[in-house]
Design goal:
By secondary structure, the protein is α/β, with parallel strands linked by helices. It folds into two domains: about 230 residues, SGNH hydrolase (Rossmann fold, 3-Layer(aba) Sandwich), CATH 3.40.50.1110; about 60 residues, no CATH class. It is built from twelve helices and 13 strands. The strands form four sheets. Strands 3-2-4-5-6 form a five-stranded parallel beta sheet, with helices on both faces. A three-stranded antiparallel beta sheet has the order 8-9-10, with no helix packed on it. A three-stranded antiparallel beta sheet has the order 11-12-13, with no helix packed on it. A hairpin with a 5-residue loop joins strand 9 and strand 10. Helix 3 crosses helix 11. The radius of gyration is 25 Å and the shape is globular.
């Protein structure tokens, strides 16, 4: 009997250090910088943006400083001069950046850029990418000067071929070039800006490869085919979460914070309806989050092929049964869209001149 009591006391003594060390951890400070994608533009609520989704999944405390329209030079300028941004970066445990797309889309000569791309002249494009790479290096240097110990993640540009499909957005010349060229162009930019920089500066940041997974048909918004829809933001969040789970993140003790278990789905999201998930702390406190609707994923079939001068039609059928008909623009329609866009740019240019 005495032996049994002794064994029990020894077991309890072994457990005491574990109990004493079991403490809640403070959430890591997660700062997101960059453009409208980082900002979550076009989502119906902030919680659907990839930054919020990733922060929820990882238990981070989010500070989202994304700004619509930001180019690499704009982010660099903010990092150098914006006191609030500098303070947030200095206090961050994890910094994530979405930048680069607007360097191309906000070109001062979009018509000339589009024309050059169509005819295989990439000189102007390559100069834009070269400048973006220099800016990226200076952005990294600014962040490291403010916070040498933070985990730095940079996501590349996803496939922007979506904008060219059927000339969906003819008000901008780049949107009218062939889809395959836009995909090639995006890959070219990712190589020149992000991959080449990392090759020259190994370990400068973790590269989140959004380009490899993003499919415009499923993940781009049908408002402009440029920004992610809810499914696109969920995909970007997953890429970030999967990447960050491969490294050892810092742990910050905080006795008054909760340690939650894994998220469990209460009911799943459908193509059109949100779902709900819950996680529970060891103390019994529960936390819920919305699971964004998945959006439709279409399989397209041609109803009527486009000719040189006549538009055609294509039918998209989702697995849930929803159908959508879209035009297939003819060569003449694409040319007309291109020149309409160029004409609109001239009108805007002269309006701006006469406004002064």
């Amino acid at each position: 009997m005495k032996k049994a009591i002794s064994v029990l006391l020894c077991a309890l003594l072994l457990l005491l250090p574990l109990t004493a060390n079991a403490q809640h951890l403070a959430p890591l400070q997660f700062v997101v910088l960059g453009d409208s994608i980082a900002e979550g533009w076009n989502t119906t609520a902030p919680e659907y943006a990839y930054a919020s989704l990733a922060a929820q999944e990882l238990g981070f405390a989010l500070t989202n400083l994304g700004a619509a329209g930001a180019r690499t030079i704009d982010l660099l300028t903010e990092l150098q001069n914006n006191g609030a941004m500098r303070a947030a970066v200095a206090a961050a445990n994890v910094v994530e950046i979405s930048i680069g797309g607007n360097d191309l889309l906000a070109s001062s000569d979009p018509t000339g850029l589009a024309t050059g791309i169509v005819f295989g002249n990439y000189a102007a494009v390559d100069q834009i990418f070269a400048d973006a790479k220099v800016n990226l290096g200076n952005i990294v240097a600014e962040i490291r000067a403010l916070n040498p110990d933070c985990v730095l993640v940079v996501q590349n540009i996803y496939d922007m071929g979506a904008k060219a499909i059927n000339g969906r957005n003819p008000l901008y010349p780049l949107y009218t070039i062939p889809d395959s060229l836009m995909t090639t162009l995006t890959a070219r930019g990712n190589q020149a800006v992000f991959v080449d920089y990392l090759a020259e500066n190994p370990g400068a940041f973790l590269l989140a490869d959004v380009f490899a997974s993003f499919q415009w048909q499923t993940h781009a918004s049908d408002i402009d085919w440029v920004h992610p829809n809810h499914a696109g933001h969920a995909l970007i969040a997953k890429v970030l979460v999967d990447l960050l789970k491969t490294i050892e993140l810092p742990k910050i003790a905080a006795d008054d914070d909760h340690v939650y278990g894994e998220w469990e789905t209460l009911f799943s999201a459908t193509h059109t309806d949100d779902g709900l998930a819950q996680r529970v702390c060891e103390c019994g406190k529960a936390e819920t989050r919305t699971l964004p609707a998945q959006g439709h994923s279409f399989v397209w079939q041609t109803l009527r092929a486009a000719s040189c001068s006549q538009d055609g039609e294509q039918l998209g059928v989702c697995a849930c049964g929803y159908e959508e008909v879209q035009p297939i623009y003819s060569f003449i329609s694409r040319i007309r869209q291109f020149f309409d866009a160029a004409f609109q740019l001239l009108i805007d240019y002269f309006r701006a001149i006469f406004a002064y």
